[in-house]
Design goal:
By secondary structure, the protein is mainly beta. The protein has strands spanning 2-7, 12-18, 28-35, 44-47, 62-67, 76-82.
Length: 84
């Protein structure tokens, strides 16, 4: 999975989930992208390996869960994504 985004100078993660954005409600985490505060604040392509892609038959909703310990600041802005 390839995401094009602009980092905003904050440490954090983007969890890639299917079916629901919460594991407690049946969602499944299939990948993650880590963002670092020192990344250039410019359009960047980041990739994530998808766990067990052969087990993802059929249709699934996809969710991006943005997480950071930094309050009141955006982690990034997401331009687009594509499955390779």
């Amino acid at each position: 999975l390839c995401l094009r985004l602009n980092p905003e100078g904050v440490d954090g993660t983007i969890e890639i989930m299917i079916d629901r954005p919460w594991i407690s409600q049946g969602g499944k985490k299939i990948g993650q992208i880590d963002l670092k505060a020192n990344m250039p604040k410019e359009l960047t392509e980041l990739t994530a390996d998808i766990d067990n892609p052969s087990q993802l038959a059929g249709k699934h909703a996809i969710f991006f869960v943005f997480k950071s310990d930094t309050k009141e600041k955006s982690l990034c802005w997401l331009a687009d994504f594509v499955f390779n």
